[in-house]
Amino acid sequence: MESKISIFLPTSNLCNLLVLVFFCFAACPSLGRLSFNFYATSCPAAELMVSNTVRAASSNDPTISGKLLRLLFHDCFVEGCDASVLLQGNGTERSDPANTSLGGFSVIDSAKRVLEIFCPGTVSCADIIALAARDAVAIAGGPAFQIPTGRKDGRISNSANVRPNIVDTSFTMDEMIKLFNSKGLSLDDLVTLSGAHTIGLAHCSAFSDRFQQDSKGKLRLVDTSLDITYAKELIRKCPAGGSSTSNTVSNDPETSFAFDNQYYGNLLAHKGLFQSDSILLEDGRTRKQVEEFANNEERFFRSWGESFLKLTTIEVKTDNEGEIRRSCSFTN
């Protein structure tokens, strides 16, 4: 297996590179089942085709990066990184109400169509999702790095598996830790991967539990951990009686479409959109890491590369455990 990896390392040297590769193999048991440059012979331009597709889509719609990143999370946390979230049909993951607000499907489908023309039956939809999310981060200004490929597409997609395996925005810290640990992710990974909220949009219903409607029909803040000025802005954008399912706000009110460390600065300013964001500052187990990332973007980017690698290797399927779908929406 090739172990060559090029990851964002602003102060990198050979020693740092070897340490990171060792970390990847030690922390990601599934990594040994994948390989870097997996398509070097079978489809040399595969990653370039995915990257170009994501870049073209992002230039037309700046929200695409956040959608692709969220799509990856919802795929990998349920049945592992196997593109099961893409399958259409009654009772599939995609049909569950928790996934109806997902986006980015058209970008994955576009990349798949191109790949099927030049390399038919070669590149899995699972790899396309992982590569597209990786590229989406880089295109939005985040770190660029290499990830292993060779995932196969799963054949099982069950809506009943969705709710028990994704983070609810009202989760307590212990609930989040338990779920992340079940996926092989640590407390550090939890704080790091929460940084995905530096881009993307959220529906008003996702944080409505932080407000309450008074006797006059107006919303009032009940979560005192939220900055009052920010809370008033959220109420303005998500008024009582408005459509909480269609109205959206940016996860990051400061640099909405830039993948940076502003998310952690927002947490320090008590401007975390979700309760599951704010709790990272309130809990003594995670506050220090929030402060470190807020003050050092390079530190966040380095940690992101490590945690993202672990995320994209959760319960991967290889060899005969899966297939290479001809269409990402349906099994063969």
From TrEMBL:
Signal peptide start and end residues: none
Principal subcellular localization: secreted
Domain Plant heme peroxidase family profile: 33-332
Site feature (Transition state stabilizer) residues: 70
Any single biological process term in GO: response to oxidative stress
Role this protein plays: Removal of H(2)O(2), oxidation of toxic reductants, biosynthesis and degradation of lignin, suberization, auxin catabolism, response to environmental stresses such as wounding, pathogen attack and oxidative stress. These functions might be dependent on each isozyme/isoform in each plant tissue.
Name the record gives this protein: Peroxidase
Organism: Gossypium lobatum
Taxonomic classification: Eukaryota, Viridiplantae, Streptophyta, Embryophyta, Tracheophyta
